[in-house]
Specification:
The protein has helices at 2-13, 17-37, 46-49, 70-86, 112-119, 171-175, 224-232, 238-243, 303-316, 357-369, 387-415, 419-444, 450-479, 484-516, 520-550, 554-557, 567-570, and strands at 51-59, 93-97, 101-107, 125-135, 147-148, 186-189, 192-195, 199-200, 254-259, 265-270, 275-276, 280-288, 294-301, 326-330, 333-336, 348-351, 375-384. The strands form five sheets. It has a five-stranded mixed β-barrel with strand order 4-10-9-15-14. A four-stranded antiparallel β-sheet has the order 2-3-1-17. The longest helix is centred in the C-terminal third of the chain and has 33 residues, at 484-516. 42% of the residues are buried. 45% of the residues lie in helices and 17% in strands. The chain is built from 17 helices and 17 strands. By secondary structure, the chain is α+β, with helices and mostly antiparallel strands.
Length: 591
């Protein structure tokens, strides 16, 4: 049993080039990915790159000042923080200031503008039945007044492309002078699809009667006051559009505006909310290639929300157009208004329309993290410069360079030739750290701030400590009288255990620090944890194999005085030799 074990060890020891080739290939692949992605430098945080500082002021709804309290403000801070970090805008800061203000600091980045656009958005979502709808204010610039988005789209029993629903006017719609014009919408549940496809209407104005004529009693009654608001509503006017339905409670009928697929403004009378945003369990942006709908937002409802959604779609299916539609209303604006022909019971829905990837992800992000408990307005927006952070970074880099130079000088003086292994390992570790940090920016939104730079500087000492542990173990074996090649292999198991335990403690401390802290301190913890993991990779795949190769070279194997492994300088013992035990007295018969 012993002989095969020695053979396997000899085979493993004779091929350290495999480990070196593996880590060099990994570095080359990561570097190629970095250049291919176009992100050749790490993404910087707000203290190093500057950014935008936004002051948001809470607005009491209906004059209810008591709603602006610590609980609601803290909840708003948590939701905003989730939103900006959900977009990948790492290192953003969200904190309260005074009783009614929230300060949001967003670093420069590809998603910073998007985060600013939605950070103060209330994101109150409701599913409301449509009572009436028509074009408002004429077509948008560049569109024809005779083309509008049809409300049609019929839920079918199959989800294949050939079974897509086509536009069909209901009896009530065909009886009127023109077809109803609504926004493009889509609801999907259990494989049932309701696709809206554009078609030309008979005229530029489409209108449905505000009074509910359908069965089922789900649409409610539009009173004279609401009808007057609807008649006077001009959705093409930005100021009028912003005030549409303001102050309406979820249990009230209301008016609202939306835009159809041709860019034309549409006005609505909507019934009480049947489902709200709190009933959405999960939302995600996906691209629907099967139906050709492009980017959509898929929502999964809670159990309670699924029942509500099935109830409202079952009742709406009994009505005629446009009262067989439900409007998906976000912050008072209709973003979609699909129609249904039967109850949808699968517990999920899909919002489609004129989405691109950015807008779909933005809506899904807001729906996932919930609505703000308060309404906010932007009080001020200022640009934060990176002048102070740049000076601190310059000073930090100088400190890091001095520390690295001292470490290298110590290695040269104390370990001499062995310092080649240590310096090469530090270079490999630095290259891996830089490339990975550059790639983490566009992938998970990692941003390098000043505390993160400090974590990288501290990591120099952690990495050097691992080399020193291994070198000292090798020297101990040489002091015991062993030659270099056996000393390198015998020292590795003991050094490996020590290195793993040390790095585990460092990584555990970094993980705890990352979990229990917030803000910039997390950058320090993240960098410390990342470099600790890389230390293990470098020691196992680079330092040990490189030292194994050098042990075969005469300069090191012979114990040259500049190799750092001179047995005489280390005080090595002479090789142990077996000695015979002295023979005892020979017994004779006479004795």
């Amino acid at each position: 049993m012993a002989a095969p074990k020695r053979g396997r060890n000899a085979s493993a020891q004779s091929k350290p080039g495999r480990s070196l080739a593996l880590i060099l290939i990994a570095i080359a692949a990561l570097t190629g990915g970095m250049f291919a992605s176009g992100h050749t430098t790490p993404r910087l945080g707000i203290d190093l790159a500057g950014g935008t500082s936004i002051t948001l002021t809470a607005i009491p709804e209906d004059g209810n000042e008591s709603a602006i309290n610590k609980t609601n403000m803290d909840t708003a801070v948590e939701i905003m923080n989730n939103r900006v970090n959900g977009l990948g805008v790492s290192e953003a800061e969200v904190q309260t200031q005074g009783r009614e203000n929230i300060i949001v600091n967003i670093p420069k980045g590809t998603n910073s503008k998007q985060a600013r656009d939605q950070v103060g958005t209330t994101a109150k979502l409701y599913f409301r039945p449509v009572i009436a709808t028509e074009l408002s204010g004429g077509p948008a610039p560049g569109t024809s007044p005779s083309a509008s988005g049809s409300p049609s789209g019929k839920a079918t029993d199959k989800a294949t492309d050939k079974d897509k629903a086509t536009d069909k006017a209901s009896p009530s719609a065909s009886a009127s002078p023109s077809a109803s014009a609504t926004t493009q919408g889509r609801a999907v549940t259990d494989g049932l699809k309701a696709d809206a496809t554009p078609s030309a209407s008979a005229s530029g104005s489409a209108k449905a009667s505000p009074s509910p004529s359908a069965t089922g009693g789900t649409t409610g009654q539009a009173d004279s006051k609401l009808q007057a608001q609807y008649a006077a509503l001009d959705c093409a006017d930005k100021k009028v559009r912003a005030k549409a339905g303001r102050g309406a409670k979820p249990t009230d009928s209301t008016v609202a505006c939306g835009q159809n697929s041709q860019g034309q403004w549409q006005k609505y009378i909507l019934g009480p909310a049947a489902v709200d945003g709190t009933d959405v369990k999960k939302a995600q942006a996906v691209i629907n290639t099967q139906s050709g709908a492009g980017w959509t937002v898929q929502m999964d409802f809670t159990d309670k929300g699924s029942k509500k959604f099935a109830d409202i779609t079952g009742k709406l299916a009994k009505n005629q157009s446009p009262q067989n539609q439900f409007a998906i209303v976000l912050d008072g604006k209709v973003v979609s208004d699909p129609y249904v022909s039967q109850a949808l019971t699968g517990g999920n829905a899909e919002i489609s329309g004129n989405f691109n990837q950015e807008s779909a992800q933005s809506l899904a992000n807001m729906l996932s993290y919930g609505a703000l408990p308060l309404t906010f307005k932007e009080s001020s927006v200022t640009t934060v410069t990176a002048a102070l952070g740049g000076e601190q970074l310059h000073a930090g880099l100088i400190a890091g360079a001095i520390g690295l130079a001292l470490v290298v000088l110590y290695l040269l003086l104390y370990y001499r030739g062995l310092s080649i292994v240590a310096v090469a390992s530090l270079v490999v570790s630095a290259a891996l750290t830089y490339v990975i940090m550059s790639l983490l920016g566009p992938t998970i939104g990692f941003a390098l701030n000043l505390p993160a730079v400090c974590g990288a500087i501290v990591a120099i000492g952690i990495t050097a400590d691992s080399f020193i542990v291994y070198f000292e173990r090798v020297r101990d074996e040489i002091r015991e009288g062993r030659t270099l090649r056996p000393a390198v292999e015998r020292a590795w198991p003991r050094a490996r255990r020590t290195i793993l335990v040390s790095d585990f403690v460092s990584f555990l401390a970094a993980a705890v620090l990352f979990i229990v802290t917030v803000g910039k301190v997390q950058g320090f913890a993240f960098t410390l944890g990342l470099t600790t993991l890389l230390d293990v990779v470098v020691v196992f795949l680079f330092t040990k194999p490189l030292l194994t190769l050098l042990a075969r070279r005469t300069f090191f194997a012979s114990g040259h005085k500049w190799s750092g492994l001179d047995p005489k300088s280390l005080g090595a013992k002479p090789p142990l030799r077996r000695t015979r035990r002295p023979a005892g007295p020979v017994e004779t018969k006479e004795a």
